[in-house]
């Protein structure tokens, strides 16, 4: 009995010693795989012939450049678990990012087995999207095409938007697609590259291109994987000024029991005048750039006002009002003067009118229609309409430094569109006449943001420090700083996409909770801290740095449900500072594209359940939140009566529960004004 126990104990000790030996051997490794002072082909723990052991050892072989050995291990790993995925469970609560097909494809690429590499990389992408797989699939396709010499054609650019045109907008949409006999790899519009992670035979594109004043050359360039290029050029003209109108004379004559106005002047516009109406009577017969006109208008009364409006081919318009003189008896001479000081005054003996200088009129006047020295507005585009008047010819007219004058005149009407930035905007109108007199009119416009479009109404996100993997270096801290800046710089138009919780707030809470930053790597702790910060979501992830590459993976976690709303990654073999900046910009853009800022309408309400006209066709995702609102009361200028826009009234907040192609169902989580939410109210995603 004692002998049997002794034998069992001896066998156990022998087995334990053997396992220790295997573990030590595994750590020490094979001397054949020792390179540059480092051992490869090893794992951290005991090698138990499990799929994760083969995968880990295969990665070690790959790091050392032992590609054939890596291939064998990856194949063994695939026999145990054949799907690439993030956070694959190994044992207990241990997880690993598992990409055997991707890494096998990279090994085949380095062995020159291009078709095998393509097969494995495509298999990886069928299982799980990853930037690294796309990066190396592009490289493999390029290597195969260069080896075979099959790619002989350059890519072809097809435009679906207009190739010529005229607009009064501040941007134009350039859209189309690029085709290649094999793979399109890059597209750029006016030297701004589009984000293309994976080369394809056909890639559509749509870009909003900002436009300057005048002619804007637009160049679309495309290239395929072997470097063959093509380009297409066209021009879009931007005209944001209405026609310049000069009224050279206005005479009022008796005509029986009525009166007749004799008006002379000219109109000029670079894009072409499409219409000129005086008191609803059309003057222009055909489109032209310049028009000298004479028009007789019947008036019921001597003091009847005369209006005019002219339009150009870009859609801009200039309008004005002429106030006929009112007669005043002064002995034998009839003096006719305007009701406002916008136009020349006239004197008359009998029925002939002549210009009468210096009858209390300033030498050079700038007047603006419906604009005070200061006003608050809620719109983005300001329409400036005005009149410049002098006794001598006006020699220049500038709006914020841009010249509007095409032809000299004494009584000029103009309009001009300008884009307002958020906050305070300074508008300066300057004019000078032939005698050197100058006039300046300055106004200030405060552009306010509607509540639902303000940064406070956007999804709030806190970016937590990322886990550092691979080779530790200061690069991880640079990535973290750049990522915060990249998210801050995200814009939809001129609206911030996300409301970032300041890093100092996170540091304060960690001190209050007596936690270190490493504690945030625990998902439960991270979610708890995110709730304390009142963030809708927390961005956490990892930075994997090797000697010749960097991979960043980030996931956005819902602080209410602790579920992962979206995970995105980026990869590059360059670790330069410009490349890091590009990587973080692309990563932030991926999150913006996945969680777009959308507007729509509430189409049905059943208690707390609401239905909106936004679905998967516009990129809506489950767990996204949206605001329900309505336009507030219009703000009207008390003097001019001009509408300055309107603010919005937020009625409630809801979360998406289910999505169809063109509509979605959500649940109200907050009603600011109970009972006020109705069908046809507006909605906007947070």
From TrEMBL:
It holds the Pfam family CsgG. SUPFAM superfamilies: TPR-like. GO terms for cellular component: outer membrane-bounded periplasmic space. It comes from the Bacteria. PROSITE patterns: PROKAR_LIPOPROTEIN. This is Flagellar assembly protein T C-terminal domain-containing protein. It comes from Candidatus Schekmanbacteria bacterium GWA2_38_11.
């Amino acid at each position: 009995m004692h002998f049997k126990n002794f034998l069992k104990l001896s066998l156990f000790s022998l087995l334990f010693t053997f396992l220790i030996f295997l573990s030590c051997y595994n750590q020490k490794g094979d001397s054949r795989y020792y390179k540059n002072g480092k051992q490869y082909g090893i794992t951290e723990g005991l090698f138990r012939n499990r799929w994760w052991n083969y995968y880990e050892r295969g990665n070690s072989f790959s790091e050392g450049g032992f590609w054939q050995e890596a291939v064998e291990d990856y194949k063994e790993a695939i026999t145990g678990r054949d799907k690439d995925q993030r956070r694959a469970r190994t044992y207990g609560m241990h997880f690993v990012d598992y990409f055997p097909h991707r890494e096998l494809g990279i090994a085949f690429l380095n062995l020159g087995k291009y078709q095998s590499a393509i097969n494995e990389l495509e298999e990886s992408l069928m299982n799980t999207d990853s930037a690294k797989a796309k990066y190396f699939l592009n490289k493999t396709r390029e290597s195969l095409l260069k080896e075979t010499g099959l790619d002989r054609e350059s890519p072809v650019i097809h435009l679906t938007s207009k190739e010529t045109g005229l607009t009064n907008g501040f941007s134009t949409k350039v859209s189309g697609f690029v085709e290649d006999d094999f793979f399109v790899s890059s597209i750029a519009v006016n030297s701004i590259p589009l984000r293309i992670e994976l080369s394809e035979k056909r890639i559509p594109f749509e870009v909003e291109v900002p436009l300057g004043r005048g002619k804007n050359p637009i160049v679309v360039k495309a290239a395929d994987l072997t470097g063959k290029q093509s380009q297409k050029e066209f021009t879009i003209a931007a005209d944001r000024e209405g026609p310049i109108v000069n009224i050279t004379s206005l005479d009022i004559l008796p005509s029986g029991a009525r009166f007749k106005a004799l008006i002379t002047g000219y109109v000029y516009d670079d894009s072409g005048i499409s219409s000129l109406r005086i008191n609803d009577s059309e003057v222009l017969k055909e489109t032209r750039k310049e028009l000298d006109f004479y028009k007789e208008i019947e008036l019921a009364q001597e003091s009847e006002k005369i209006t005019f409006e002219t339009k150009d081919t870009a859609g801009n318009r200039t309008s004005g009002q002429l106030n006929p003189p009112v007669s005043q008896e002064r002995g034998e001479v009839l003096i006719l003067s305007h009701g406002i000081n916008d136009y020349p005054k006239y004197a008359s003996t009998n029925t002939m009118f002549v210009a009468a200088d210096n009858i209390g009129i300033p030498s050079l006047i700038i007047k603006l229609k419906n604009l005070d020295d200061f006003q608050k507005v809620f719109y983005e585009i300001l329409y400036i309409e005005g009149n410049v008047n002098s006794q001598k010819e006006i020699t220049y007219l500038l709006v914020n430094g841009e010249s509007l004058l095409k032809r000299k005149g004494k009584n000029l009407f103009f309009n001009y569109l300008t884009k307002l930035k958020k906050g305070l905007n300074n508008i300066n109108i300057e004019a000078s006449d032939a005698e050197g007199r100058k006039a300046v009119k300055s106004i200030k416009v405060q552009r306010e943001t509607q509540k639902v479009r303000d940064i406070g109404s956007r999804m709030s996100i806190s970016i937590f420090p990322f886990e550092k993997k691979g080779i530790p270096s200061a690069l991880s801290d640079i990535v973290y700083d750049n990522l915060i800046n990249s998210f801050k710089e995200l814009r939809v138009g001129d609206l911030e996409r996300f409301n970032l919780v300041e890093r100092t707030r996170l540091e304060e809470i960690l001190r209050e909770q007596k936690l270190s930053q490493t504690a945030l790597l625990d998902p439960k702790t991270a979610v708890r801290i995110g709730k304390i910060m009142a963030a809708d979501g927390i961005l956490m992830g990892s930075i994997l740095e090797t000697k010749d590459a960097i991979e960043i993976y980030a996931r956005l976690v819902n602080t209410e449900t602790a579920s992962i709303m979206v995970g995105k990654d980026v990869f590059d073999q360059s670790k330069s500072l410009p490349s890091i900046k590009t990587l973080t910009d692309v990563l932030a853009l991926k999150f913006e594209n996945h969680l777009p800022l959308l507007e729509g309408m509430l189409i049905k309400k059943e208690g707390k359940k609401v239905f909106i006209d936004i679905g998967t066709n516009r990129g809506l995702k489950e767990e996204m939140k949206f605001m329900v609102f309505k336009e507030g009361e219009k703000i009207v200028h008390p003097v001019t009566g001009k509408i300055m826009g309107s603010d919005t009234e937020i009625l409630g907040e809801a979360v998406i529960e289910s999505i169809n192609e063109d509509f979605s169902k959500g649940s109200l989580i907050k009603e600011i004004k109970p009972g006020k939410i109705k069908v046809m109210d507006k909605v906007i995603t947070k």
